[in-house]
Amino acid sequence: MPENLPHKVANRTLKPLLTVLDRRIERLARRGARQTVDESRTVRDLKSEAEKLRKELKRVRADMDKMRDQSKGSDYAVDLLLGAHGRRSSRLMNEASLRDLADQVAKAAGVPKGNAYERVVQAYRTLFELELRGVGRLAGGPGNILGKLTTTPLLNPPNGEILEIGTLFGLFSGGMARQMSRIGLKYELTIIDPFASVQLQVTELKPDASGSPVTETVVRENLTLAGVDPERLRMFQGFSEDPTVQAKASDREYGVVVIDGDHSAEGVANDLVFAEKIVAPGGIVVLDDFGDKNWPGVQEATERHLAGPTRFDLVGVVATSAFLRARALGEPAA
Ligand SMILES: C[S@@+](CC[C@H](N)C(=O)[O-])C[C@H]1O[C@@H](n2cnc3c(N)ncnc32)[C@H](O)[C@@H]1O
Description:
CATH superfamily of the largest domain: Vaccinia Virus protein VP39
Number of strands: 7
Number of helices: 10
Bound molecules: S-adenosylmethionine
Shape: elongated
Helix content: 40-55%
CATH architecture of the largest domain: 3-Layer(aba) Sandwich
Radius of gyration: 29 Å
Strand order of the largest sheet: 3-2-1-4-5-7-6
CATH topology of the largest domain: Rossmann fold
Oligomer: single chain
């Protein structure tokens, strides 16, 4: 972690004091060296001055120790709030990695770097707030989550209809709804997930490290905690490849489709075919875990899909998410 604030403040506060003490010691030494006028008075003066300085030094040392302890305590407290204690992945980010992420966002969304940086910082606060209030967690590391939360609104989706395929605890959906509000779009949220108590796309099925089950009850609770209006929320329990589920979700054109369910090449290929039918012209498809070595099927299926007949164009990759934009039906590729 970089040098923290209390430490900096302690140093800044103590510096002038130490300078004054230094000067006084210097003056004392000079005076002693002269040893002129009244020898006995000089010695008495020197003794009393030295005693005063000793006391002052003791006090400064005690203050410094106190500030150091406070600084260590606040490091630990920040780590408890943002670090990896009690969860799968830390939310701590250093400035270099955040700025690097912002540069990727800027490139993908075609916006100035400074603008992207401000939006990433804003999304960082949103991530913190969502996890602090909610139960469970958002999936993935901070770079991956912030990349999706920031780039999607900067790509100006044509409407606030969001479909998330694979929601886990629902917290990311809550964040994406917030991001639509930020750009003045009225969000409407549709979620497809089996709500199978555990996360299904992993090979080993086990309870989540957060201690919360992946259930419809938990997701509804989280979306309430995230401030999502229940009237603007639909949840379809099931698998995204199921024609019955697809039929229910196909009643509208989505401005944003997040593909984050079955991460196998076959699963992602199915979701892309489904997305072709339901994304609004100009709409954004977010492919989570694109380029992540743990989920090679995502990139494999996406590249295969884009090489065939499609109305999607790849607009960019940020962290481990790819962003596609949909052309209108029949509109030729740029
Ligand atoms: C990686 S998690 C989603 C994380 C969530 N989007 C987030 O950002 O926090 C994947 C979720 O998709 C679900 N899932 C697996 N296969 C699915 C499928 N075929 N259709 C819909 N959801 C699926 C899993 O059970 C799990 O809840």
